[in-house]
Design brief:
Blueprint lengths: L8 E2 L10 H7 L15 H21 L6 E4 L2 H20 L3 E4 L5 H14 L2 E4 L10 H7 L4 E5 L13 H10 L4 E4 L3 H4 L11 E5 L10 E5 L14 H4 L7 H39 L3 E3 L10 E6 L4 H11 L1 E2 L15 H4 L5 H4 L2 E5 L6 H27 L1
Parallel strand pairs: 1-11, 3-4, 3-5, 5-6, 6-7
Antiparallel strand pairs: 2-8, 7-8, 9-10, 10-12
Helix pairs in contact: 1-9, 2-9, 3-4, 5-6, 9-13, 10-13
The chain binds pyridoxal-5'-phosphate.
Pyridoxal-5'-phosphate (PLP) binds next to helix 3.
Length: 395
């Protein structure tokens, strides 16, 4: 993309975060001398196996679970796939349970997987209700859960509009009905401490590149006793639940990233919340016909998301990029054939609003000056995008 400003301000941490240099250092030896396959008997292999098991211990300590409840995967998407498909297939085999209950604002990794289970494998997919902020409720889960429900999946914190779900309460409903609950915590794990002794979910997905770790690695927490079948078959790695040689450098990096994150989180979360609220307040004050999407307070501390009436979100992103700011619409619009995000429509927004979405996500070290600069240009850029859109629709 052509830019007049070569210095880029990155405000898209929900899409991916930069690798922490300390994480890169921890990974390096495993790209160099430590090249053994962790399944091999010899010293090279054992060195890799030790790196993997130490990483598993470290991650389990951060999440307060047992190391053998953590399965390493290639990222958030694979973890969601394994959770949904693996539990659904096991539950059908075990007790003929074929009902799947998910929130209507799940990440596609959950939603498309659930749809495929319905279309190809005979499961019955039902959606929970959400309020105007995209929150599911324990009451609604209780109303819709059935004896033949195979799995419930409710996103911890939404990637598009930041809303955090009342997961503790939902988890209690699921556990009292003896139905496994999966949560996609890929965003949440980057900004909230997760304690799996106090949070009674059965499965939880996470991915390292959202918390300053490498891309292409993640994990799935599977509570002891949860029925699950492998979906990637082959060797006996990962307790027979995920075949394939482990990505040793990335697993080491993920453990290091999580440790650094936890050490710094309470301080950085407070800073981010302040900047987030500054962004939200300024936009709502200064941009006419603007709305916050997602919950005003029960949201990710780094996440501000909006819709602007009569604006083309993609056009706006390109204009911001030219100004030197990297943001997101939070959704997958197709150039030429813009379709509003299903998740924004589930919040009750019509196309006129939902097509003009903007997601601004800051990071642990985003300085106030960058936010100030962004806010100083945003209202005029939106005004320009709006006048272009008005001119096009008058043609
Ligand atoms: C990024 C993301 C994913 C996908 O994770 P990958 O590691 O990129 O595959 C899934 N769910 C949510 C909520 C995400 O933000």
């Amino acid at each position: 993309m052509v830019t007049k400003n070569s210095i880029k301000t990155y405000l898209d941490f929900a899409a991916s975060s930069p690798l922490d240099p300390r994480v890169f250092e921890a990974m390096k030896p495993h790209f160099e001398s430590n090249h053994g396959n962790p399944a091999s008997i010899h010293t090279f292999g054992q060195r890799s196996e030790t790196a993997v098991s130490t990483s598993r211990d470290r991650i389990a300590r951060e999440f307060n679970c047992s190391p053998n409840e953590i399965i390493f995967t290639s990222g958030g998407t694979e973890s969601d796939n394994l959770a949904l498909r693996g539990v659904a297939l096991a539950q059908r085999k075990l007790k003929d349970a074929t009902h799947i209950l998910i929130s209507p604002v799940e990440h596609d990794a959950v939603k498309v997987t659930a749809k495929q289970l319905a279309e190809l494998h005979g499961f019955e997919l039902e959606y929970l209700e959400v309020d105007e902020f995209g929150r599911a409720s324990p009451e609604n889960v209780q109303a819709k859960i059935r004896p033949d429900t195979a799995i419930v999946s409710v996103i911890y914190a939404n990637n598009e509009f930041g809303t955090v779900n009342p997961l503790h309460e939902i988890a209690q409903v699921c556990s009292s009905n003896n139905v496994p609950l999966h949560t996609d915590a890929v965003q949440a794990a980057a900004y909230f401490p997760i304690d799996l002794q106090s949070l009674p979910v059965d499965l939880l997905s996470f991915g390292a590149h959202k918390f300053y770790g490498p891309k292409g690695v993640g994990g799935l927490f599977i509570r002891h006793g949860t029925p699950i079948l492998p979906t990637q078959t082959g060797g006996s790695q990962e307790s027979d639940l995920r075949a394939g040689t482990l990505n040793v450098p990335s697993i080491v990096g993920m453990a290091e990233a999580l440790k650094i994150l936890k050490d710094e989180l309470s301080e950085s979360a407070a800073k981010m919340t302040e900047l987030r609220d500054l962004i939200i307040q300024t936009v709502l004050d200064q941009v006419p016909n603007s709305k916050l999407t997602g919950h005003p307070t029960e949201r990710l501390p780094n996440h501000a998301s909006f819709v602007f009436k009569g604006v083309d979100g993609n056009e706006l992103l390109m204009m911001l990029d030219v100004e030197g700011f990297a943001c997101s619409s939070g959704s997958a619009c197709h150039t030429g054939n813009p379709k509003p995000s299903e998740n924004l429509k589930a919040l009750g927004l019509d196309s006129d609003w939902a097509l003009g979405s903007l997601r601004v996500t800051i990071g642990n070290h985003t300085p106030r000056t960058e936010v100030d600069q962004f806010l100083s240009i945003l209202p005029s850029v939106i005004a320009r995008a709006r006048s272009i859109e008005a001119a096009i629709s008058n043609e």
